[in-house]
Amino acid sequence: VPTNLRGFEPVHDGRCVTLFSASNYCGTTGNFGGVIIFEANLSFEIQEYMAPSLEEIQMLHSETCAATQKVFLQTRIKYLEMQAKRQHRRTAAARMNEQIIEKICKMICEKKTDLWWCFFNMGAESGRVTPAQWREACANVLGRNFPWVYLMKRLHVVEEDGYVYYNEFLNRYRVEFRPPKCKHLNWRRECIARVFESIMSADLSLKETLMLFDRNCDGTVSFREFNELITELDVGLSEPQVRILMRLITASPAFNAAAGSIDVAEFLGRFRVVYSHVINDDKRSVPWLQRALHCIGKAILADKAEAANRHYEQQRQDGNLGPDLNTRRRSSAVRAVALFQKFKDYNEGGDGYLSYADFVTGIKRLTIDEEELGFALTDEHLYKVAEAVDTTGSKRINYLEFLQAFHVVDSNSNNSAAEELWGQICTAIFQHKSSIRRALHQFDPDMTGKVDSEDFRSALVTVNTVLSRTE
To answer: Are residues 165 and 218 in the same domain?
Structure first.
């Protein structure tokens, strides 16, 4: 301990200076500490410091920690605020993106037929468009204020080959109404069954049937020709519903996109696909007749490729070049065209109808698997089959009756048109829900939220009367 309790102590007449460190010796005594600072000329300065008491050190440490914690907390708070703002911005952006996607999906449902028509008029082959054409069509129909480049990626519309297949794209989006207790399948089928039945019941000859659809006699059916027919028949389909039927028909590989038309024989086959009725209910219940129709159909189509090829060869000779037969072997086109050719083969009188005798004679030329059938077909059996096929009861078989009896198609395909038409009806209800709600309020003055079925029907009929044919 320095004698003077200072931080330094000179000795030897100032020639030696001893420096001490500050200490309080556990509170018993204490001295300053010293630091000597030399200048360049070797002059020096001694500065002293002191060691505070343990209580002061503890207080100073606490104050230092508090100040440090305060600075840390302020920094942490600012960091958390920035993180919260960033997360909010990210969440808001994600929420906005989802809202945009949801809005786009609703608009696609509401404008599906307009979108298809726009894609269709671009003249792209095989139901496909380029990404640029897809963006342009969406901008024209749905609006130019949407980020279509971003949405094209987000919706994954471009396939691996670099094209957008617009039929598949549009089929993704639909307004669904499927209550578990609602049996509406038959009702949906009736929407299209009326079209087929009204034409079939007219009992037209083959030539009249072809001219009904192929009005310019070029061997093909265009959308304009089909639309004119449905309009004239007045079967209650709106223009969007007619476009739905044409969209399903033109999904066929035989569709000539450049010309906007499809081979008339395949058109009738595709038209048959959407019709679910087969033969009269009272005759369908006869087991042997069901087996006979199945076996006869297989025998008629046993050489379907050769029969279809004869039709296409005739088309080529007439100047109506169709696609190569090899591209059709995996589609229903061969069956439809083969039946068309077989009907002409069996029509010995050339009047466009099959008499019962024509039908029986043609079927007797076929090789029918009697082992699968379970009995030998006699003329009596065949005349009863002809009577069952003749659903109009005219004592002769027109082409549509022949087609609908023997054109076997995938059961899932039969419902596609009904599903699409049902979807269009649901979309129209969704699009005009505000008007329907106001109409329902007229039947619910107490605002209970419930009306009976008759009032609900009246509200729908009222709204439907003011809708144009384009809706």
So the answer is: no
Give the count of beta carbons closer than 10 Å to the beta carbon of residue 341. Answer: 19
Q: Are 368 and 296 in contact (CB under 8 A)?
A: yes
In this structure, the answer to whether residues 299 and 388 fall within a common structural domain is: yes
Q: CB–CB of 225/236 below 8 Å?
A: no
Q: What phi, psi does 317 have (nearest 5°)?
A: -65, -30
Task: State whether 254 and 237 are in the same domain.
Answer: yes
Q: Are residue 239 and residue 348 in the same domain, yes or no?
A: yes
How far is Cα 241 from Cα 424, in angstroms, rounded to an integer? 7
Q: Smallest Cα–Cα separation from 426: which of 183, 178, 244?
A: 178
- Assess whether 413 and 341 both reside in one domain: yes
Q: Within a 10 A sphere around the Cβ of 179, how many other Cβ atoms?
A: 7
- Pull the structure tokens for residue 309: 């090829």
Shared domain for 309 and 295, answered yes or no, is yes
As given in the structure block, the two tokens for residue 122 are: 């671009």
> How many other C-beta atoms can be found within 10 angstroms of the C-beta atom of residue 100?
15
Residue with tokens 């907390």: 73
- 58: in domain: no
Model confidence over 329-379: pLDDT tens digits? Answer: 444 567 778 888 888 898 888 888 999 999 999 999 888 888 888 888 888
Q: What is the end-to-end Cα distance of the chain in Å, rounded?
A: 107
